[in-house]
Write a structure and sequence with these properties.
Number of strands: 0
Distance between the termini: 51 Å
Largest sheet: none
Helix content: over 70%
Number of helices: 4
Length: 91
Amino acid sequence: MQQNPSDVARLLELIDAEYAAAKRGLSEPAIGVSQHQFITAKMERMELLHQELRSHVGEQAMVLIAQALDTVPNEVPGETDNHNNEMHEQL
């Protein structure tokens, strides 16, 4: 198992981006694909990236991913509490 710091950083950035995109998919409409399909595709891509990361760092991969995803904001950019309240009122 060879650890290349730049490969590890690249993979963590890609995982972070896929996760953030999946989170956005929860609140933004996906054009040409269902919301479920969009999120599933992002999660499947994250799994492939996890496997590649694991080939570099072994069991430490999940710890690194958890740390990276901990930095992803809970709120979707541009989304406000007011927007959430409006959505709940419509339901």
